[in-house]
Specification:
alpha/beta; globular; 5 strands; Rossmann fold; 9 helices; 5-stranded parallel beta sheet
């Protein structure tokens, strides 16, 4: 199953609930961090194109510095995506193959599920939806960025409304956490495990 939604929509909370219900969750954000570890193929390509100025003292990529660059210039974001997306998909496919025989429902938690074309890899797509105002508020609380930077990040992804067109199920995450839990449990119980 694919779980998606815009940045700061609450996907991590929903995937945490699903994990507690027994799903095997593949977090695409963690995979993206894994594939850019120092000296990896993606790390080398990113440093080649964006320079050593994006590195921390320990040699890891400073994701905030890189984000500031790519979210302010679409062509740079496209370049980063060209470097990372194929490697993210390949790693997720490896994880699915490794887990496939364990009879657990496998969830791919990916903000860019649709953008990556991974909706074709899953039997069902769930979209976590939140209104733009709440999305901005959550992003500003979570990151040390300006409202303009938050909007740049939100608009770098396809809208939740567009994602919903691909959805088999929609989780409304504008309410309380308990309301979200109840929605997720109800949807989970409707799945064939």
């Amino acid at each position: 199953m694919g779980l998606t939604g815009g940045i700061a929509s609450g996907k991590s909370s929903v995937s945490s609930i699903l994990r507690k219900l027994g799903a095997f969750v593949i977090d695409a954000d963690l995979v993206s961090r894994e594939i850019i570890e120092p000296e990896s193929e993606a790390w080398e390509e990113i440093v080649k194109y964006f320079g050593y100025g994006i590195l921390k003292e320990d040699g890891t990529i400073d994701r905030k510095a890189l984000g500031d660059i790519v979210f302010s210039a679409e062509e740079k974001l496209l370049l980063l995506n060209d470097i990372t997306h194929p490697k993210i998909i390949r790693r997720i496919e490896e994880m699915i193959r490794a887990e496939g025989g364990n009879n657990k429902t496998i969830i791919i938690d990916a903000a860019l599920l649709i953008e990556l074309g991974m909706q074709d890899m899953v039997d069902e797509v769930w979209v976590v939806h939140v209104d733009k105002k709440t999305q901005i508020e959550r992003l500003l609380r979570r990151e040390e960025i300006t409202k303009e930077q938050a909007l740049d990040r939100i608009y770098s992804q396809i809208s939740n409304e567009e994602k919903i067109k691909y959805a088999d199920k929609v989780i409304d995450n504008n309410g309380t956490f308990n309301e979200t839990i109840q929605q997720v449990i109800q949807l989970w119980e409707g799945l064939k495990h």
